[in-house]
Amino acid sequence: MKLFRKLLLVSTFISIFNCQASDIAIWKETANGVWTITVGKPEGYNLTNELEFTPKLDVINSMGVSKIPIDKEEIKFEIRDGKTYIRFPLDSLEQIYGLGLNFKSINQRGKVKRLHVDHFSGKDDGRNHAPVPFFVSSKGYGLFINSARYLDIYVGTGVRKDSKHPAIVRDRNTDKKWSSAPYSDNLEILVPVAGVELILFTGENNLDVVRKFNLYQGGGCLPPRWGLGFWNRTPAKYSAEQVLEVVSEFKKRKFPLTVLGLEPGWMSGSYPCTYDWAKTKFPEPKVFVKNLSDQNIKVNVWVNPGISPNSTMYKDIEPFTGSHTEWCGVIPDLKMEQAKNILNNHLKKTLLDIDVSGLKLDENDGYDNWLWPDLATFPSGITGEQMRQTYGSLLQSTTNKLYKDQNVRTYGLVRASNAGTSSFPYVLYSDSYNHKEYVTALINSSFIGVLWTPEVRDAASGEEWVRRMQTVCFSPVAMLNAWADAKKPWDFPEVEKEISFIANLRMQLIPYLYTAFADYAFMGTPPVRAMNLVPNFDVKENIIAGKLDGTNNPYAIATKKEMNNQFMYGDALLVAPFFTGEKDRNVTLPKGKWYDFYTGKLVGEGEVIKITSSLDKIPVFVKDGGIVPMYPTISTLTAEKLPLEIRHYGQKASTYSLYDDDGNTYNYQKGEFTRINIEVNIDKKGKKIGKVIIPTGKKVWSFKQYDFHFMTDVE
Ligand code: GAL
Question: Quick one: which of 477, 439, 433, 440 has its CA closest to 457?
Fold first, then answer.
């Protein structure tokens, strides 16, 4: 990121004069449609400057020129009492997305937030696992507030006396239109320090804005191919023997398994953590990992930040830790090179050298009484608050570097994140467990440059088990986290068939998902994304008037019905999950014709359709001309090349750029990858003809034969 500063300065002009002369805000267009604004004197430490990534300015610059869609004079800045006040204008129909990993709502207009890293608070009030201070406006711009402080954001709630579009004064006694949330025409931000850097992104549409935000952070991550298979975490206290028994049960049932996750019991002590193997349970860790690796299964291990006095790295790292502990374990100050090196050397020796594939970075988000309080100090001099806002990001950056230095890709889990992390191969999760909220979070993750897994742990019925498995298999990590109750995928015998169908489908879709991730890595396009990011797709919200109720809703606050139950999965697929108990549901199809993924039949065209539930399948629709490359049914991934089924849907001729590389190393960043061009043409008689073009001299790692399957015959 430091390198980025040197690349700055394309054009500069001063446009805002609300600040004192010395605090003038200056706009610089640093790349096409990327504007940085420095207000006052920003702090030396922000959300991104300690993270290891390189912005992809060349890709941003190839995206064309765009203008800021609001009048810059309407954006106000002020430094007052050592704090920064920022105001952006809002139009009456403008919607605001992002501002953290929200679990309950998509459009954030009307919300008051304090962005604060924490476990999900139960409300969309800014306390969550990834309170990224970035919003996307439906007007076609995005704003990133690069401060590692707790930020207060009033998203169209403050009603100002000097408003240009004042709210109508209404009498609650007589006027039925009275609302507890009178119209507000601004979004206000309070940064609790005297200066901040803002980065404004513009593009042709919301998706371009998000892409630029991701590219500015180095693009998305490209997980190793095995990371996109099926994951299972075993109970916290299991020994090597018990874990191997679970694995052999998976094998016996031919149930997919590519990653096995060990929970706290792999260590000689946890809460606080030793980060050393428990020799009693895992007498020969190297042999254990090799055993799994011989079965094409990767091992991922759990850790949390507090390092135990019983750890073999304790003495070395202790001088570089903060004033407070987590469960009596010291917290490395990850702004310090010494702390990073000691931690990484230990991880290398203990884990990486024996081929452990990655980490689950747990409990770095909070629950206030577990992590350090804000008054904690750290030897590098950054405050407890700044450390809280960035600890998850620092852990991702540090551990990602460890793997990258060995030229090995990792894919792991993390419970806290923030801006600047999109290129790090980590996926967020939570201890909360509401299925609908998990899907809302999946949708919201696409606005803010993070990944999310709606992991499965347990269910009250076979139906719920299936519904949860279906959504997790259409997410960045398809995982059963059985750390607490030893659940197995086949534990609900009445739905065993459905569970195995969806896990197998996940494996079959790896070539398609891997390509979607390559588009994330190279072009910043999120692999799973909100309908609000589909260009030209008009998301209509349905406002439901609040009912007056003296206990629960004394101000008759209205609620919104939004598009929180369908999302895009890559470019071609629209997923519309069912939740337990639902018998039918509506699906809003974007423009053009859409087809059923399973049958290839036409389902509708740019309209709202009603579908009825069947337990065996999660509804998935494919756009006209959609091409979906699929593996055969497999339960692990090996180095062997596989035949590829290429499905084509609808009647449109189309092309698809299938991505392939070695699946494991960073050589792709040096150009060692291949884009295989797939074409479907339609001849004069209406016959579809498929063609696969491998550029001359380019290597193919994963596929050995290509069979077209035209899913739609006649309509
Ligand atoms: C929780 C975490 C769980 C599991 C558990 C182990 O905090 O969210 O997934 O890892 O710790 O103690």
Answer: 433
Query: Cβ(84)–Cβ(196) under 8 Å?
Result: yes
The residues lining ligand 1, judged by C-beta closer than 6 Å to any ligand atom, are: 236, 263-264, 302, 362-363, 431, 481, 483
Q: Averaged over 242-266, what is the pLDDT?
A: 98
- Is residue 459 within 8 A of residue 581, CB to CB? The reply is no
Determine the residue of 234, 327, 431 to mutate for testing ligand 1's pocket, defined as the one with the most ligand atoms within 8 A of the Cβ atom.
431
Q: Radius of gyration (Cα) for the chain, nearest Å?
A: 25
Rounded Cα–Cα distance for residues 705 and 668 (Å): 23
**Token digits for 444?**
């919201």
Residue 512 Cα to ligand 1 middle (Å): 31
Domains of the chain with CATH codes? 2-216 (2.60.40.1760), 531-622 (2.60.40.1180), 627-710 (2.60.40.1180)
Dist CA 362 CA 305 (whole Å)? 8
- Ligand 1, closest atom to CA 483? 4
Give the tens place of pLDDT for each residue, 283-293: 999 999 999 99
- The ligand 1 atom at the shortest distance from the C-alpha of residue 430 is 8
pLDDT of residue 545: 85
pLDDT tens digits, one per residue of 156-165: 999 999 999 9
Nearest to 172 by CA among 558, 543, 548, 552: 548
For ligand 1, the distance from its centroid to the CA atom of residue 363, given in whole angstroms, is 8
Q: Which range (249-263, 476-490, 555-569) has the least confidence? A: 555-569
Give residue 415 CA to ligand 1 midpoint distance, Å: 10
Residues 6+ apart with CB under 8 A from 446: 210, 526, 528, 529, 530, 533, 567
Q: Comparing C-alpha atoms, which of 625, 638, 715 is closest to residue 678?
A: 625
Report the chain's mean pLDDT, rounded to a whole number. 95
What are 522-561's pLDDT values in tens digits?
A: 999 999 999 999 998 887 778 888 888 888 888 888 888 8
Helix (H) or strand (E) holding 77: strand 76-80
Helix, strand, coil proportions of the chain in percent (round to 5)?
Answer: 25, 30, 50
Here the tokens at position 297 are: 């299964």
Mutual angle of helices 240-252 and 285-294, in 10-degree steps: 10
d(CA 211, CA 63) in angstroms, rounded, equals: 10
Classify strands 642-648 and 703-710 as parallel, antiparallel or unpaired. parallel
> With contact defined as beta carbons under 8 Å apart, do 209 and 141 qualify?
yes
Q: Whose CA is nearest to atom 12 of ligand 1?
A: 264
Which helix or strand (DSSP H or E) is residue 587 part of? Answer: strand 584-588
> 227: CA distance to ligand 1 center in Å?
20
